[in-house]
Write a structure and sequence with these properties.
With 234 residues, the protein is α/β, with parallel strands linked by helices. The protein is built from six helices and ten strands. The protein folds into three domains: 2-68, no CATH class; 72-130, no CATH class; 133-226, Zincin-like (2-Layer Sandwich). It is flat and about 55 Å long. The protein binds zinc ion (ZN). The site of zinc ion (ZN) has 3 residues, from loops.
């Protein structure tokens, strides 16, 4: 197995498969691009293939998301909730969040792959993530601000397509509900990153040095690790 990182495609994981006859490419639930190669194809050639078909692969992201993760979503769990899909005698889809469960009810006879069902599951998941984010992020941000002796203006928690977080010119911090899908140390990295922007409004060397100092960890490693995830792909 070989792993590499590309600015446009994110984390790329190449593996050789005994029985595969052609190169296949898909995204796994963590947002890593998984490339399966036949044995006779070298890693170098496989990577070359992927990088020269970047545009095609990126265009396919949405399709892949729709086609290949349809099943995975039914076993999806968030930090504190487990998804359960129930097929019942009902006209429309609905969901309920209770006791660590997200129960998504869909009409009998419909299928996991149906767009309607997929939409219902994602909709329910987003509500759960928002709930968890509102519970967790403000407290954690305050803790860290206190620890770093920094202050911010307002915190907004919302769903965003590409950014994990941002900090405005007047130090309002925005955090993405999808942060809740990340491990603790990466959430902390994003929170520290935005808090650090209250001091530096750019990504200058000063900014990175300051962030390094605040976190007292290998910031580059954390940044690379974060790049393996995407707010969009799950
Ligand atoms: Zn930044």
């Amino acid at each position: 197995m070989k792993e590499t990182y590309d600015q446009d495609l994110g984390c790329i994981r190449l593996t050789k498969r005994k029985h595969s006859k052609r190169i296949s490419v898909r995204y796994d639930p963590e947002g890593r691009l998984k490339v399966s190669l036949p044995y006779r194809v070298s890693y170098k050639a496989g990577l070359h293939y992927v990088l020269s078909n970047k545009k095609l692969i990126r265009e396919k992201i949405v399709d892949l998301q729709n086609e290949q993760y349809r099943h995975d979503l039914s076993h999806f769990h968030t930090r504190w909730h487990q998804v359960e899909v129930k097929y019942e005698k009902c006209e429309t889809t609905s969901h309920q969040i209770q006791d660590g469960k997200v129960v998504v009810r869909v009409p009998e006879g419909s299928h996991q792959q149906d767009q309607e069902v997929q939409k219902a599951i994602r909709h329910a998941l987003e509500e759960v993530l928002r709930k968890e984010a509102r519970h967790y992020l403000p407290r954690r941000l305050n803790e860290m601000a206190e620890q770093f002796n920094l202050s911010y203006n307002n915190l907004h928690i919302k769903k965003a397509q590409s950014l994990w977080g941002s900090c405005s010119s007047i130090n309002n911090i925005n955090l993405n509900i999808h942060l809740m899908r990340l491990p603790d140390h990466l959430i902390d990295y994003v929170l520290a990153h935005e808090l650090c922007h209250t001091l530096h409004k750019n990504h200058s060397q000063l900014f990175w040095r300051q962030l390094q100092q605040l976190l007292d960890q290998d910031v580059r490693k954390l940044r690379d690790e974060l790049n393996q995830y995407s707010p969009k792909l799950y």
